[in-house]
Write a structure and sequence with these properties.
Distance between the termini: 61 Å
CATH superfamily: Class I glutamine amidotransferase (GATase) domain
Largest sheet: 7 strands, mixed
Protein name: Glutaminase
GO molecular function: glutaminase activity
Structural class: alpha/beta
Family: Belongs to the glutaminase PdxT/SNO family.
Number of strands: 14
Mean pLDDT: 86
InterPro entries: Class_I_gatase-like (IPR029062), PdxT/SNO (IPR002161), PdxT/SNO_CS (IPR021196)
CATH architecture: 3-Layer(aba) Sandwich
CATH class: Alpha Beta
Strand content: 25-35%
Pfam families: SNO
Length: 256
């Protein structure tokens, strides 16, 4: 049976993700309520306005269910605002911050590339994507008031980075009470990562004709299902062995 991909449809580019899934023959369903997460095999959290999305998610009491879904090991992909949702830590937020789903061991800057007027497109080097899904070693990255990943944990695989745009104001990373603030001084910044069942991109693949990111995500779902079947098979084998040992005739002493 074909996997069902849920797309969080609170706000933002969920229609574009749904269209991208249709183009590759995948079944996508819009998700707005916690109970709808029960009927899907994977989840896309799209781009949009992250503060607005967080308020709507709070209104629908979605955060506990989203955290539980991430914890199941089923594939989850966050694009742009979705990346912010999935990060364990976010900086550069509005006063009061916003609630996060978490699960991705990284620090994301909510508005690294600046305002809507500083949105841009660029070619990104993506050798891993080409290796797995074919095609060119580059892809088109559409960045719209985009975040970026400043730091990642050791279990996070970096899939793409890009140059920090020239002339962009310096970013100050607030380190917390009692610690000195740091200025981001690297000339490149991370824009796509994977950690286990989580995929995250700071850009918008759903706004291009390149379907490889969506195909990669579907392949993650196949991996997840294969692991679940293997675990189920191992559990069944173990249970059969236990039953066999219980039904086995006891060893009796031999008298000569």
């Amino acid at each position: 049976m074909a996997a069902v991909v849920g797309v969080l449809a609170l706000q933002g580019s969920y229609n574009e993700h749904m269209a991208a899934l249709r183009r590759i023959g995948a079944k996508g369903v819009e998700v707005r309520k916690a109970e709808q997460l029960l009927g899907i095999d994977s989840l896309i959290i799209p781009g949009g306005e992250s503060t607005t999305m967080a308020k709507l998610a709070n209104f629908h009491n979605l955060f506990p269910a989203l955290r539980e879904f991430v914890g199941t090991g089923k594939p989850v992909w966050g694009t742009c605002a979705g990346l912010i949702f999935l990060a364990d830590k976010a900086v550069g937020q509005k006063t009061g911050g916003q609630e996060l789903v978490g699960g991705l061991d990284c620090t994301v800057h909510r508005n690294f590339f600046g305002s809507q007027l500083q949105s841009f497109e660029t070619e990104l080097s993506v050798p891993m994507l080409a290796e797995k899904e074919g095609g060119s070693n580059t892809c088109r990255g559409v960045f719209i008031r985009a975040p970026a990943i400043l730091e990642v944990g050791q279990d996070v695989e970096v899939l793409a980075d890009c140059p920090v745009p020239a002339g962009r104001p310096s970013i100050t990373i607030t380190s917390g009470e009692g610690l000195e603030d740091q200025v981001y001084s690297k000339d490149r910044v991370i824009v796509a990562v994977r950690q286990g069942n989580i995929l995250a991109t700071a850009f918008h693949p759903e706004l291009t004709s390149d379907s490889r990111w969506h195909r990669l995500f579907l392949d993650m779902d196949k991996e997840s299902q294969a692991k679940a079947l293997a675990a189920l098979s191992l559990s069944a084998s173990s249970n059969d062995a236990d039953v066999g040992s219980k039904n086995k005739a006891p060893d009796l002493p031999i008298f000569e």
